[in-house]
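Re: folding output
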Amino acid sequence: MPREKQAYEDIPGTYVFDAERSRQGYAINMFCMSLMKDENRRAFKADEAAYLKKWHMTPEQEESILKRDYNRMLELGANIYYTAKLGATDGHSFQHLAAVMTGNSQQGYAEMMLGGGRPVDGNRSRDGKHNTPSPFMAEALQRGKPAASRAQAPKAKAASRTPVKSKAVSKATSKPASKAPVKAKAKSSSKSRSKRG
């Protein structure tokens, strides 16, 4: 059944993982989750096409996996966090996958992200109806700072606080507890035994 057109589908370079895509991509996502087990990874790597047949995917979904076309997988209902398990099975980092998906080298992708990410211009909804930034982004844009640098500031402040002693350290440096309450408890239980019998 063809996908129902959504208003947000004109945002370039992304596929929103909504309820419809979730249903559409269930088989892809369950296949990817199966790769968390070593025996499944070995079976997949031994015969990829045969392993995929277990999951009852569409031919397009199987083809996207065999070609490692991650953007097509997302379009066909895969979730990026699930497909990362396929990338890991192939020995790739998430940064590698993101670079491939954005048409960058790993270094180019890292530099882009360190520089504040993709520019907003040209990466918004084309009809203009969905271009209102979130309150978080709007505040950051007003201040003229990238949101990423503002998000890191509280972490740096928290790291500069005086460290708290862990329980293990405080136990090792404190005096041992008195054994008097334990002895008293033992005496009282022996008294209660003598009263019974």
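--- second protein (sequence, then structure) ---
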Amino acid sequence: MQADIYSTAGAVVAQAELDDTVWAIEPNIAVMHQALLRQLANARLGTHDTKTRGEVRGGGRKPYRQKGTGRARQGSTRSPQWKGGGVVWGPHPRKYTQSMPRKMRRLAVSSALSAKVIDERLIIVRDLTGLEGKTKAMKAFRTAFPATRSTLIVVPAKEGMESIYRAASNLADVKVIISPLLNVRDVLKYEQLMIMEECLPLIDSWLALEGARRTPSVFRKARLERLAYRQKFALARIASKGSVATAAAAEAE
């Protein structure tokens, strides 16, 4: 597929050839959701901890005698029902790590990128390295493009991109990442995706399908045919309803 390449002034200067298996697929919502949950879970440290009655300091002596006080029998002041006692069923250190097949992880990123293309939130920029390393310059650069709540800028590497990082460092709604760290969470979190032209071959190199995988399987072909038939049938129904309404209006006149 073809996509426009913009200058820092917001003018179209060239056309880029994008791989259809990365930028023009049908977004798989279920896989994106699973990948997002996995990424959020893997970011958790799992260091939360509470003390049980055996870990709380003190409470070795029986607080009062077993009988004759009229109170309920107690063996320790560190029992869960006492103030300052242990915690029952509290959290303890654990791992939240989730695994996911590599093909599914890559499919999730490709689906997120394709969703940005569908929503017209993808901008490919040329010569972004010439941007001055000041917040004012980054703000002026963003005004050349459609207004958006937040922007994710993808650069090929950190080397030579210090001015871009410096210009975006004071803006809470702008984030700069390198293309190997492209992930589902950031692509979905930021409304606008801005990619440098040099990043396109790097992204396609690890996300594009190869060989026989580029052609849809028999099951996918059948699914696409069913989807096309349903769309055609829906359009036919809408057209027939419109013609019926027109005929009824003509008879009423």
